[in-house]
Amino acid sequence: MLMPNILLTEKCVRSCPYCFAKQHMEDSEVTGITWDNLMYIVDFLELSGQKKVSLLGGEPTLHPRFVDFTLYLLERSFHVNIFTSGIMSESRLWQCRDFLSKYPHERLSFTCNLNHPSISAPAETSRVEAFLEIFGPVSVLSFNVYTVDFDMNFLVETIDRFNMRRHIRIGLAHPIPGEINRFIPAADLKKMAGRLSGFFDLLEKSEISPGFDCGMPMCLFSDADIGRLFKLNQGMVNFGCGPAIDIGPDMMVWACFPLSNVNKRSLYEFNNLQEIDSYYKELHASVRKVKGGVFDVCDDCQWRKKELCRGGCIAHIMNQVPDKINTGIIS
Amino acid sequence: MIKPVLVCPFNRKLMDKIKNTQFIITVTGFDDIHEVIKSVHRTNELLGIKIHTEKTLSSIDFDKNWEKFPLFIYAENFGEFLELFPKTEIIRNLNVHFFLSAHNEFNFTGLKILASLRIHCGLWFDKLPVSWDLMNDLMHYAIYSKPKHAHIEPFKWLAEHYAVNGYSNYDAVYFNDPIKFLHINSNEQVAFTADDLLNNKFIAEGAENIDSIQNLQEYKDLSHSRYESMLKMDDCSFCSAFRICLGKFGYLKDKKTTCQPFFADLHDACDYHLSGKKTKENILWQ
Fold first, then answer.
1. Which of A324, B123, B164, B276 is a good FRET partner for A65, with 20 to 30 A between their CA atoms?
2. ipTM score of complex
3. Subunit contact A39:B117, Cβ cutoff 8 A
């Protein structure tokens, strides 16, 4: 299911080691989306039959019109999901509380990206806690895995403490083709999955569902683990990788952050969201013709052919065979 | 002949004197609205209340008791969305049209915001400079854009009332079309337009003359003089879009880079809108 992302701003208060949006943000000359561009995007999505949208950044709450834009989208009957670090100034937090806290999560939800306390400054942590005190009940935690020795206990504690929605969005830090950032190399993915399944008991006991964002190959997990994931997530297990559709403040679109520096197009080139989706799906398919997935076995994998698994993140594939792919597929 | 609607300031004496007439009352303060509603003589019909305010649109304290009559609120500036937002529900329950000055650039965005939230609105013009690019952008949004939105005037009026073989005077939106409206002040002096009234260009005096005003020679003379600009060898005479502009921006010096390209585009938009209407009319349902 498509749920496009609108980038309100390229600014961010954090400097996460795994950040796969970093390259995009460094290259961008536009600092924030304008009212007119936002309204164009909203009309575009409405004409595409799309009434769900995510706001992200950078840190979207840094945009001076963040609350205005969110209220506008709600008034246009969109379901709005906001990806945030939860770190914001006091005045912005009070403004959010005054205007946004009355909405149920069916209309307005937050996905709060939490780093382990060991890499978070105390001042950051206290800001996040202040945010979660108010918006915890309409927020889902997001956790980006970028090392194999990660911990998830603090996530469960945070969910309990702030009465949050009982779900964790687990994202894998992905490579940015041609750039340097921290991510888990393909060879270590299995180790990462082993570590993750070690937390299944805790998650089950806490009644928390671990949902995968994208780019997670199915073969990292044993059949038993897949069965547990199936149960923990009420049958919704995602081993996909496809265009997310990000729309920048400068009205450029791209498939997803790891691919934000390749095949960017102008939103004005498309008539609706489905056209953008088809464009990037075709591009993905042409890359996967060169190499099916992150592992060599992906090429002949029956589960990939049956589309139960996409073969991992396409950015990994592009990193593995840059010479072949650079011959015409990527512009 | 159609009896014109009178546009006049709020004046009890005047309204008591004139019977069986349709009125648009102009006020400058929101406190006057209740008084106007109470005071209109039973034999007259109040078509609407026009309010010109120096407040920003967002700072107006809307009252749900205003719902009885159409309100036409003219404001200089849109203001702040966050200030307006809590009032959108009450606004939707009122019969209100907002007009924002074309002089302020953010107002163009403000009008798109209002229209996209299904609140009827429009631009109003004074003699101050306007951005023709922003005008064109707003006009395109008002006429061509597909997502549902409320009317933005005067573009929607022009698109709807565009006459292929005649003149279309969008001043009707501002109660300024002399064929439909006449302006009268508290001294019972009558003028074609609000500007004429301000500049003491009267066509008659005395409320008792209203019913027969269209027979007066002064009325006929001034009616004909309004299109005299077509006889002059100036830019407006050679403008393809004169029929929808009627020389309203005749005071501009460089029309070829300002009003003319804009009105040519607006003219095309009116044609496009008309062709759309015709296509709809010709659908054969079998």
1. B123
2. 0.89
3. no
